Amino acid sequence: MTSPLSAKFLPELLSRLTDENITIIIEDPTYVDSWLQFFSNVNQIGLVVLLLVFSPIMSKEYEKGTLVHMVTKGLPRLSIYMGKLILLFSSWTLLYWLSALITLIYTNYYFPKSSLEGVLIATGSMYLFGLMLMALLLSVAVILRTSFGTLLTVGAFVGLLYLGELFPLIQKWSPLQLNSRNVEWLAGKEIGRELIQSFAVTGLLILLFIGIGAVFFRRKTIN
Fold it and tell me: Which residue spans adopt a coiled-coil conformation according to this UniProt entry (predicted)?
């Protein structure tokens, strides 16, 4: 809810905070500014909070020994792993698309001339990026036994993605495009080959992280 609200009223608030000796020239806000706030909030708050909340998803199980009881009672390890994965994916899916829907409703209310062009690809790309982080989180959580180590590894992975932006070849294939160029597509930039490449790499990484986590969980000693 704060995304369209801040986009709509921030220029007015700034104008009231300044005195007559200071002049600030601010363009009239548009629906693009509302979505810009949305993507910024998801990046800086939404994803961070979700990763913090679910970082102990396996460490608590290892600590309390609950996995031992489930396995000794005949529950397949793959079922346990997939149950955790479904929990992560469904939580991200529900919270993300609910937030996007609220943003869409309020954006159309405050900006009646807003367009839906580019909204689906912009929101969908960030959603896929979030799925990749959830898959990585679970995979690392299976291998490590501490929530801090899990968060540190996920953070290091994102840091490597930003570092890869320094190299044009890596940038063209980087999943980070799905999380950083959303507003460009909203503003009307044509979807090119680079976006398709990023989608493909991100999808492959999701499958890779899921596979790695499943293999390690099947072989890992959990006592």
Answer: none
- The count of other CB atoms within 10 Å of the CB of residue 48 is 13
Alpha helix positions (H), the chain: 2-17, 31-41, 47-54, 59-64, 66-72, 77-110, 119-143, 147-164, 168-173, 177-180, 182-186, 193-219
Residue 156 structure tokens: 């290091």
7 or 215, which is more confident?
A: 215
pTM of the predicted model as reported, rounded to 2 decimal places: 0.87
Closest CA to 119 of 188, 73, 175: 188
Predicted confidence (pLDDT) per residue in 77-112, tens digit: 899 999 999 999 999 999 999 999 998 988 888 888
Domain tally, the chain: 1
Please state, in angstroms and rounded to a whole number, the distance separating the CA atoms of residues 91 and 49: 12
| C-beta atoms surrounding 105 within 10 Å | 12
Domain that holds residue 123: 2-219
